[in-house]
Design goal:
- The complex is a heterodimer of chains A (about 725) and B (about 525).
- Chain A is globular, with a radius of gyration of 30 Å.
- Chain A is an alpha/beta fold and about 725 residues long.
- Chain A contains 24 helices and 25 strands.
- Among the domains of chain B are: about 220 residues, Pyruvate-ferredoxin Oxidoreductase, domain 3, CATH 3.40.920.10; about 80 residues, no CATH class.
- Chain B is α/β, with parallel strands linked by helices and about 525 residues long.
- Classes of the chains: A alpha/beta (about 725), B alpha/beta (about 525).
- At the A-B interface, α9, α12, α15, α17 and β21 of A face β2, β3, α2, α3 and α4 of B.
Chain lengths: ~725, ~525
């Protein structure tokens, strides 16, 4: 079960024609899919569309009622391959995943799907971001659209536009027999807005209908000679069909004055920030009314030549606002103008940065300087020749004060002790080459652990260490992979590969019972029972099945000593071949979400409950912070003592502590100090508890009084 | 024909009716920024505004800095075009859920004097980089406060985390209260409270936190940064601070306190604190010992230097004499006052029972240190014997101090206090104290400041086991520079710099760098 529940929100998916939908972008997309009579949906979680998967998962009852099949795909490749159901059958299908990483994984299936073409509409909803909203390498899905000839929609980031894009996408796909990619950015996925709903549609043909009446058409299968014909068909038939559809249905939009000496062309996703820039330049009002001619590309591929050329009619200069590089759109437009022998100057990356996110400031500067250079007469005086703008506040020295705050492990995270142990082992055996993977465990590269040299992709941690396998090596490589990555493709690409190539390295599989980094979705090895999915398939069994001989399973990662010993053994054993350690403990975030309400209820209900919490004896702590260099737990922090005799702040554990045990285990394993204590609070103690307690209190109290009566006791000591 | 400038469109925010209000919220992952954003949207809609909220809530980024953004405008029937992220110099209200996040907002240009109301909680959540320093690596809050005063049009800052926890709620509630109280938005208090009520969960607590923060924001202009406490002026050590105990010990104490009254006023506070610590650690005689040593510094001292030497001596002598050994740990963990402190710290309610587990990991070193000096060193000088014993001792031990056995064991170890002076660890520590203290005072005449800095180097010695060993070596490395430095005008500065460098990282890499620099200075006196 996912971290965020949309159980309540999904009820909005039942809204009928004319009713107003209010909510998040991802819910709007889901509603649009149902309004389009989609027959099957699937995908793989990953920001920004993780929540879209969660919405679909929570909406399974509603999907079921409509006869829509939902698939929590094993990977993006699986999700895209699933769209094969739309090749021969007139069934609309949708897949969703994070791009470009997901599209990389999916590209094999994508290319095959695009070559044979589709009968039913096939929509691929990809989340792609630049800058702040992105946690991955900065690339463009646009390249995939071009190389496989898949159409790419990039709608304006408001709910009505996204919903329309979904509807247009399916039609476009069917009319041109081509899969369509719909690109959304993270803020658009989470944008809160409104649109007028339509009734949900049952798919005219369900997957069940298709199975009872199978079809095939050799001409749609990717094999010579059909594949040669596919390429011709792409340019001769599908492309023109798509261009006609886009033109006829006015997918791209024109705003502002229809004549003027300059104009701005933009990806639909850039519209709001362009308008904001124009507003700040005094050229647009609150509602986006402007005199500057705007050409908004809700379809960024294919481009419509005559649409663009007519926009350029009588314009001296046109600015292309295109986030990311290479600047495919700008290049294409430049070629059009050149071939049409037009004099209009086309500019883009001259005024806007070639790389990086187009933030509000970037947009203001870029469009501002474009207009100053090309159409100063449009600008109000104060903008044309601004007085020195500057807030007059010098933040230079503040930059050295404010500490960075990168993401890290949560309070009580079961992965923290694994890396604490790794750090301790390295203190014994020296530094090792450590290969990281994708997932929460990648936070090991951050302080205080600073472990991990590379990350090469999901499930590819051990694969990325495969070259480090030499008979004359003195040390072994260590590689990490999460349970998510393991099932995504790590089992074959990493474990299988290591077995087959007799890799001598150490592989640690971090098993936290979920695909945790993407929001706690269930996977094969999840321990929870899932109503619609088959879980509880142990990773250890799969690893054994792959032929791994040296396998250790740690079922409580908080046992730092044990993790340390196991890792040491793996690094030093004589045994050849991959040494695999499966380190299992439940993601604390999900565990708390599950247990906390139950515990609170039990305590209220008067049941006996033992709740652990950690603490620090501040007069025993010397303030050396060695514990924090092995933890980084948000609830273990520093505090100043009201005592002039003490210079440095001491360790302190706040109320958010969940008593995971890492502090004590580390203090023990690393032989740090005796400052930590674990306090188990027994709520609603039983009769025996109370008897024992009073007996102990009596004796202990007596001993304490005896000693304290023979010494000086200071009031505030 | 756009050859001449067109009639200028009303800028966003030109007419009040069409003005777009821009609100950005910076928080640390896990603070509930999403809840707050939803509340704000709800409040806006209740007041006939159209609102749009966005976030970059990366699903896994739970402890990192996060940002939420809300835009709203009065509903006029037409849909405004809202931006999806804040722009520099274009934010009306900036809410920061933690002080350094306010600093980050200022750096990112989201706070400008012409328009921005900056509402921030003044509490700190230390970043990892601040926590891992062996010394005090925390960022300067006062610097952020100072810059914020200048950068914001209005600055509202107080500890909203405390208000939240005092009312059993989350900071999102007190932040909303501060927002409402600041009147930065044209909405009534009731509409805010309705939004909270509609939320459903923990409404009562949320409303309480909201109300407290609301009043505080109404009353309080920006709260100033916390000021360091003034050192107390102790007129007489006699009777300062209550104490109880057997008559003879109380008399003994008063005799010692009387000696403090003979010291310069400036020294008394620190000396009294030191004396208490030392007597509490061992006994009256140990306190006498402490004062005897302290007197040496006082004798060398004078008002001209504001008695800096004596004060440093009073402070660091006390810490040096109260070295952290097993006896002290056991003693502190078996005191009656400790039970109450633990109950308070873990928030144990009356009627609940506490089970306390201590984490010990004794090694041969600690074992020998707790033996009579002769026996202890006998073992230490025989590596094979020591190794043999270590294999039996060196193991993590969990002790339940709420149980008879566990408590009795620690109580017994604590009782060894009486023989402490005869134990090996004491001999070692005292030898170290002698060397350090004598070394410091030996410089007092020709270089007073240097003597003070040498005393201050005691700050380096802390931690247990390996950490303690590393600390010792840093201490020695810093003082190793003395031969090169003495005689220079800036000798004291250099020792201070070296000490500060030593507190920067675990292994002392920065210290080694600083030492290499010192080596290049040459020992030629600068004067």
């Amino acid at each position: 079960m996912a971290e965020r529940s949309f159980a309540k929100e999904v009820e909005k998916l039942r809204l009928g024609a004319g009713e107003e939908f209010a909510g998040e972008g991802i819910l709007a997309i889901t509603k649009a899919l149902l309004q389009c009579g989609v027959g099957y949906v699937g995908g793989y979680q990953g920001a920004p569309i993780s929540h879209l998967m969660d919405v679909l998962a929570d909406a399974q009852d509603i999907l079921g009622e409509l006869g829509v099949h939902f698939e929590a795909s094993a990977s993006e490749a699986t999700a895209t391959a699933m769209l094969a159901a739309s090749v021969h059958y007139p069934i609309r299908g949708a897949a969703t995943f994070k791009s470009t990483v997901g599209t990389n994984v999916a590209s094999d299936a994508l290319a095959n799907l695009a070559s044979g073409g589709v009968t039913g509409g096939a929509l691929i909803i990809v989340g792609e971001d630049y800058g702040e909203g992105s946690s991955i390498m900065q690339e463009r899905s646009h390249a995939f659209a071009m190389k496989s000839q898949v159409w790419l929609l990039d709608p304006r980031p408001n709910l009505p536009s996204i919903v329309k894009a979904v509807e247009d996408g399916f039609e476009l796909s069917e009319i041109s027999n081509t899969p369509v990619m719909l690109q959304v950015r993270i803020r658009c996925c989470h944008v809160h807005g409104h649109f007028i709903a339509k009734d949900n549609k049952r798919p005219p043909m369900t997957v069940a209908d298709a199975l009872s009446a199978p079809r095939r058409d050799t001409g749609r299968i990717v094999l010579p000679p059909a594949s040669f014909l596919h390429e011709k068909e792409k340019v001769a038939k599908r492309w023109p069909a798509a261009v006609d559809f886009i033109r006829k249905n006015k997918i791209n939009e024109f705003f502002g004055s229809d004549h003027g000496s300059v104009g701005i062309v933009m990806q639909g996703g850039m519209y709001n920030s362009v308008i904001r820039a124009l507003q700040r330049l005094g050229l647009a009002d609150t509602y986006g009314e402007t005199d500057v001619p705007l050409y908004v590309l809700n379809a960024v591929y294919p481009l419509v030549d005559d649409e663009f050329l007519s926009f350029c009619e009588g314009k001296q200069a046109v600015l292309v606002v295109e986030e990311g590089q290479p600047n495919y759109v700008e290049q294409a437009f430049a070629a059009m103008l050149h071939k049409a022998g037009r004099g209009t100057r086309l500019v883009g990356k001259e005024y806007l940065p070639m790389a990086g996110e187009y933030t509000g400031q970037v947009m203001l500067d870029g469009i501002g300087s474009f207009l100053r250079a090309e159409a100063p007469h449009l600008l109000p005086g104060e903008v044309r020749a601004p007085n020195k703008v500057g807030d007059g506040v010098d933040t230079a020295d503040l930059i050295n004060v404010v500490p960075g705050r990168p993401p890290g492990f949560c309070i009580g995270c079961p992965e923290r002790p694994i890396f604490a142990a790794t750090k301790l082992v390295e203190q014994e055996l020296g530094k090792h080459h450590i290969a990281s993977d994708i997932g929460c465990h990648l936070f090991s590269i951050m302080p205080p652990f600073e472990l991990g040299a590379t990350t090469m992709g999901y499930g590819l941690g051990p694969a990325s260490a495969s070259a480090f396998n030499s008979p004359n090596a003195k040390r072994r490589s260590i590689s990490f992979v999460g349970d998510g990555g393991f099932w995504h493709n790590g089992l074959t690409s990493s474990i299988g590969n290591a077995v087959f190539n007799k890799n001598d390295g150490v592989i640690v599989i971090v098993d936290n019972f979920y695909s945790a980094a993407t929001g706690g979705q269930d996977i094969l090895s999840s321990r929870a029972s899932n109503r619609t999915k088959s879980t509880k398939h142990p990773i250890t069994e799969a690893v054994k099945g792959m032929g791994v001989k040296w396998l250790r399973h740690i079922d409580r990662t908080y046992d730092v000593g044990k993790v340390q010993d196991t890792l040491r053994e793996a690094l030093t054993t004589e045994e050849k071949g991959p040494k695999v350690i499966v380190a299992s403990s439940e993601c604390m975030l999900n565990r708390q979400r599950r247990e906390k309400p139950l515990v609170d209820k039990a305590i209220k209900g008067g049941e006996r409950v033992v709740k652990p919490k950690f603490g620090v004896d501040e007069d025993i702590c010397t303030g050396d912070h060695a514990c924090m260099r092995l933890s980084g737990c948000p609830s273990l922090s520093v505090k100043s003592l009201d005592d002039p005799l003490r210079d440095d702040p001491v360790a302190s554990i706040d109320q958010n502590c969940v008593g995971c045990g890492n502090c004590g285990e580390v203090a023990d394993a690393a032989v740090l100090c005796p400052s930590f204590y674990r306090a188990d609070v027994v709520h609603n103690p039983g009769r025996w508890d109370r008897f024992l307690e009073s007996a102990r209190r009596a004796v202990i109290g007596m001993m304490q009084r005896r000693r304290e009566s023979r010494r000086l006791v200071f009031a505030d000591a | 024909m756009l050859d001449q400038a067109p009639p200028l469109r009303p800028k966003s925010g030109a007419t009040d009716n069409e003005r777009v209000i821009k609100l950005a919220l910076l928080a640390v992952g896990g603070q509930g920024g999403g809840v707050l954003a939803d509340w704000i949207v709800d409040v806006a809609e209740r007041n006939g505004y159209v609102a749009q909220s966005t976030s970059v809530a990366g699903v896994a980024q739970r402890t990192g800095a996060t940002i939420y953004y809300v835009e709203m405008a009065r509903h006029t029937g037409r849909l405004p075009v809202f931006a999806l992220s804040p722009s520099q110099g274009d934010v009306d209200i900036l809410i920061a859920a933690e002080l350094m996040e306010a600093g980050r907002a200022i750096i990112r240009g989201f706070v400008t004097p012409d328009r921005t109301t900056l509402i921030t909680s003044s509490h700190r959540i230390a970043a990892v980089s601040e926590k891992v320093e062996p010394g005090d690596g925390r960022a300067s809050s006062s610097k952020v406060h100072a810059t914020a005063e200048a950068a914001a049009k209005r600055f509202v800052a107080f500890d909203m985390e405390k208000i939240a926890s005092d009312n059993g709620s989350m900071i999102s509630a007190s932040l909303l209260g501060a927002l409402a109280g600041s009147d930065a938005l044209p909405f009534t208090r009731e509409s805010y409270e309705q939004a909270i009520g509609a939320g459903g969960r923990g409404v009562k607590a949320s409303l309480a936190a909201f109300g407290a923060a609301f009043d505080r924001a109404r009353g309080a202009a920006a709260a100033a940064s916390p000021k360091p406490a003034e050192p107390a002026i102790v007129e007489s050590a006699l009777g300062a601070g209550q104490l109880r105990g057997p008559q003879n010990l109380v008399q003994g104490w008063q005799a010692l306190a009387a000696r403090i009254d003979l010291m310069p006023v400036a020294v008394r506070d620190m000396a009294l604190r030191g004396l208490r610590k030392v007597v509490d650690y061992q006994d009256i005689a140990y306190g006498r010992d402490y004062l005897d040593r302290l007197d040496k510094a006082v004798a060398l001292d004078d008002a001209g230097h504001a008695h800096a030497l004596s004060i440093a001596a009073a402070k660091h002598l006390a810490n040096a004499l109260c070295y952290d050994d097993m006896i002290r740990v056991a003693d502190l963990k078996t005191r009656s006052t400790r039970d109450q402190r633990v109950r308070k710290e873990v928030g144990a309610k009356a009627g609940s029972i506490l089970q306390v587990t201590e984490y010990f990991h004794p090694r041969i070193e600690e074992f020998c240190g707790t033996l009579p000096a002769g026996l202890g060193s006998y073992i230490e000088n025989r590596p094979r014997l020591a190794g043999f014993l270590d294999r039996r001792i060196n193991r993590g031990r969990r002790v339940r101090t709420d149980s008879f056995a566990g408590f009795a064991m620690l109580w017994f170890i604590g009782g060894l206090r009486r023989w402490r002076r005869s134990l090996l660890r004491h001999k070692v520590e005292m030898a170290h104290v002698e060397r350090w203290y004598a070394l410091a005072l030996s410089h007092a005449r020709e270089d007073y400041a240097l003597a003070v800095e040498i005393l201050n180097c005691r700050r380096l010695i802390k931690g247990y086991s390996d950490t303690h060993v590393r600390a010792q070596s840093k201490f020695d490395r810093v003082l190793s520079a003395l031969d090169l430095l003495k005689g220079r005008d800036d000798a004291a500065d250099w020792i201070r710099r070296l000490r500060e460098a030593a507190l920067k990282d675990e292994k002392g890499d920065m210290l080694d760098g600083a030492l290499r620099t010192v080596a290049t200075l040459g020992s030629v006196p600068a004067n």
